[in-house]
Amino acid sequence: MLADRPQPGRSPSDSPRPEPKIFHHSFAADPLSVRFALRTALARFLRQLSQDEAGTLELVLAEVLNNIVEHGYGDTGHGTITLSLVRDHRGLSCSISDDGVELPRSCLDLGIDDSQRPAPDTLPEGGFGWFLIRDLVEDLGYHRENGRNLLAFRLPLKPGAVS
């Protein structure tokens, strides 16, 4: 892009820096590390997202990461979570990997329609999270291999310039 090239008579350091398009971070499987990872990921993309998009990203990531810590590792805090985000013209592609326990297939059951959706007050604490995640993301997929979980999805974003 011409806008990213230095203008004649200007040094490359005078040119505006393009917004980062990739975020990759590995962290301990504990609540404090999740909080830091969320803040860092949001800060990386804040200027590229609307306020609603940033809120949706924070909600989805918090739900997924906190579920991994609580259900994948219990109270051990031993383990590593890796979060990768890539911004492109299709939205924000997210992948999360961990070495905790396997995700139950029922969490990703896409065959449930609104008539089968349980009332939120009948679910255990946090039980509505996977319904929320499925409603907010696209291309949700899960795979487990060699003791590692990989969850991937795309957060659709309004069309806009990708720096």
Automatic annotation (TrEMBL):
The keyword Transferase applies. Residues 1-21 are annotated as: Disordered. CDD domains: HATPase_RsbW-like. SUPFAM superfamilies: ATPase domain of HSP90 chaperone/DNA topoisomerase II/histidine kinase. Gene3D superfamilies: Histidine kinase-like ATPase, C-terminal domain (3.30.565.10). GO terms for molecular function: protein serine/threonine kinase activity. It is an enzyme of class 2 (transferase). Keywords: Kinase, Serine/threonine-protein kinase, Transferase. Its EC number is 2.7.11.1. Coiled coil: none annotated. The keyword Signal does not apply. Residues 28-154 form the Histidine kinase/HSP90-like ATPase domain. This is Anti-sigma regulatory factor. It comes from Rhodobacter capsulatus (strain ATCC BAA-309 / NBRC 16581 / SB1003).
